[in-house]
Write a structure and sequence with these properties.
Number of strands of chain A: 2
Strand order of the largest sheet of chain A: 1-2
Radius of gyration of chain A: 19 Å
Distance between the termini of chain B: 43 Å
Number of domains of chain B: 1
Number of domains of chain A: 1
Order of helices and strands of chain A: HHHHHEHHHHHEHHHHH
Helix content of chain B: over 70%
Strand order of the largest sheet of chain B: 1-2
Number of helices of chain A: 15
Strand content of chain A: under 5%
CATH class of chain B: Mainly Alpha
Number of helices of chain B: 12
Oligomer: heterodimer
Radius of gyration of chain B: 19 Å
Shape of chain B: globular
Number of strands of chain B: 2
Structural class of chain B: mainly alpha
CATH architecture of chain B: Orthogonal Bundle
Helix content of chain A: over 70%
Distance between the termini of chain A: 25 Å
Chain lengths: 312, 292
């Protein structure tokens, strides 16, 4: 399927969701749907660098929270529509990705990963000390009662996130099948060989980091309006970092569909576990699933399906 | 005007703190610095060691340091199991980069959540005669709950350093760190040596955990704060260098202590990153280490 056709398919999907949404009266559906879409976006963003190039970013929470706090800060200064805030969040996190990438991507991947892990901690310290956005006591954001076209505001946020998630998936699919994607795959398989064969490894890695960071910032920007109250421990919650990594790894990191499957599956499992068991055990479940998949099925669910097909 | 005595106080406190950081970083200096195994879960093991020490202390009334030492065989065993699993699943397949890191990150997370489920999310502390008292050094009052961990940490690092220099096994570990291919060509399998060394690295976590709970009350998620610090100390000190790691830990401790006293304690966790990023970007061989 060509990229245009795929985009058309996604657009049809958005319209279908919108039409179906007319029939939904329960706001909870949009609340839950938003969370799933947010994770699809985050997992897809992470996979651009982690899955395609094999560079693990442990600092998703930092990129995500930066987007969220840029919107809190801007919202305090002037009233801006959410799409503008999303752009601002994306630009800030993308810039962060650019700086991080240039400083650490020349070294082996392990060092990049450790630096991203530390990044989340340093950003939390910065935000905790930044009184303007509420510091350690957190910030309240007044959520408008209705979206710009009527209906509850959460419904509006849901469609915004739906469009973002679809755009990210289309982007990931496009990259996967382009020269950039092949270059990134070459880096993942053997970076030295790729460099010698003339793949501009550093450029591609930085590009992937910037794109990935931008998407994560965009995912974070609407968060303050979704939760209405944002404090550092919840914005930098470890569960974002863990889920963002676990979802592509469970779904499969080689293709665009992997993170989507992983996000829907893991979020569903957690929703179910939250209701039936406790919230601590539901995080344990994610951790165990992640470790089980990396040790037993390194190519995720997509890999399992592919090898089952081959055997037939 | 800054009071010179206050600065001296902060520096001495920082040296003590840095000595303790070195105890946490020691396991990573072995696992990551020498064996190239990026054991992100080490700080979580340290917290597990702290909780095990708390159990022995509150149930049997054992001294925390003694409890930490008694726990080392258990942690050694844990380390060997973790390394075997890592080796079978990733190292042997040659997929160390992406999958291995995610594996250790998962372990970190599982350990933390498991501790919450077993022991609860509350702060725990230990009882020992020296906690609460203090003594005077260089005209500065040093609480014993900082001094004891500092001394134990230095003894532990010096002992392991001598072990690596003087014994046959210790030298074999250094050989693994220097050139695994050469070792294989000599007909020696690096796996057993690495499993042993990784076990030793993990065993240091129980002692470091005991020191941690002497210094401050511990809850399951505090381990995360030490990941950045410990890796910063190892990278800044130079991969594979114990003294470099100790030196870097002490610099880190002094800086954190000065910033906390003079400015704001909530900035302290960010300092490690302030050291780590420039080191990675501009001087990747660290202060005293081998080239990356």
């Amino acid at each position: 399927m060509s990229n245009w056709r795929f985009c058309l398919l996604l657009a049809t999907l958005v319209v279908a969701f919108w039409l179906a949404g007319r029939l939904v009266t329960n706001e909870y559906v949009f609340f839950t749907g938003y969370a799933v879409l947010q994770y699809i976006l985050l997992a897809t963003a992470w996979n651009l660098l982690g899955g395609y190039a094999g560079y693990i970013n442990f600092g998703s929470a930092a990129f995500f929270a930066l987007g969220a706090y840029v919107s809190v800060a801007l919202n305090k200064l002037v009233e801006l529509p959410v799409p503008v805030l999303i752009l601002a969040g994306g630009v800030s996190s993308g810039t962060l990705g650019l700086v991080m990438g240039y400083l650490t991507l020349k070294l082996r991947g392990v060092f990049f990963s450790i630096a991203t892990l530390a990044l989340a901690i340093v950003f939390q310290a910065v935000i905790t000390n930044w009184e303007f956005v509420g510091g350690s006591s957190g910030a309240y954001v007044i959520r408008p009662a209705n979206g710009p076209w009527g209906g509850p505001y959460v419904e509006y946020l849901f469609y915004v996130m739906l469009i973002l998630a679809c755009a990210a998936v289309a982007l990931a699919r496009g990259i996967e099948r382009s020269a950039i994607g092949y270059g990134l795959a070459a880096i993942r398989d053997d970076e030295v060989a790729a460099e010698i064969s003339g793949v501009p490894t550093l450029k591609l890695k930085v590009l992937a980091t910037v794109l990935s960071g931008t998407l994560m910032g965009m995912a974070g920007a609407p968060l303050p309006f979704y939760v209405a109250y944002l404090d550092p421990p919840s914005a930098f919650n470890l569960s974002y970092a863990v889920n963002t990594i676990a979802m592509p790894l469970v779904g499969g990191t080689r293709t665009w569909i992997g993170p989507v499957i992983g996000a829907i599956l893991l979020d569903g499992v957690q929703e179910a576990a939250m209701v039936t068991i406790s919230s601590a055990s539901n995080l344990l479940l994610v951790g165990l699933l992640m470790v089980a998949f990396i040790t037993l099925a390194p190519n995720g669910i997509v890999g399992l399906v592919q090898s089952a097909r081959r055997r037939k | 005007m800054v009071d010179p005595l206050a600065v001296l106080n902060a520096v001495v406190a920082g040296v003590m703190l840095g000595g303790f950081y070195a105890a946490v970083a020691l396991g990573i200096a072995i696992a990551f610095g020498m064996l190239d195994v990026p054991n992100l879960s080490h700080p979580a093991f340290v917290v597990a060691g702290a909780f095990a020490t708390w159990q022995l202390n509150s149930r049997l009334g054992l001294d925390p340091v003694v409890a930490g030492v008694l726990l080392t065989p258990v942690f050694y065993g844990l380390g060997v199991v973790v390394y075997r699993l890592y080796h079978v699943c990733f190292e042997r397949r040659g997929e160390t980069a992406l999958q291995g890191l995610a594996f250790f990150f998962g372990l970190l997370f599982i350990t933390e959540v498991a501790l919450v489920m077993i022991a609860g999310a509350d702060y725990r502390s230990v009882v020992a005669p020296y906690i609460g008292s203090s003594r005077e050094i260089l005209g500065v009052t040093v609480p014993n709950r900082m001094l004891v961990p500092f001394v134990v940490s230095i003894v532990m690092i010096a002992t392991l350093h001598q072990f690596l220099l003087r014994t046959f096994t210790g030298r074999a570990i250094q050989a693994v760190a220097q050139d695994q291919t050469a070792l294989r060509l000599m007909g020696i399998g690096p796996t057993r040596i690495k499993a042993f060394a990784f076990g030793v690295a993990t065993a240091t976590a129980s002692i470091a955990g005991a020191l941690l709970i002497i210094i401050e009350p511990v809850e399951p998620s505090v381990g995360r704060d030490f990941i950045g610090r410990a890796f910063a100390a190892v990278v800044l000190g130079g991969m594979g260098s114990f003294w470099g790691m100790l030196f870097a830990s002490i610099i880190l401790g002094i800086t954190e202590s000065l910033v906390s006293d003079m400015w704001n304690p909530s900035w302290a966790p960010a300092i490690a990153f302030g050291f780590l990023l420039p080191t990675l970007a501009f001087r990747s061989s660290g202060l005293l280490g081998r080239r990356l």
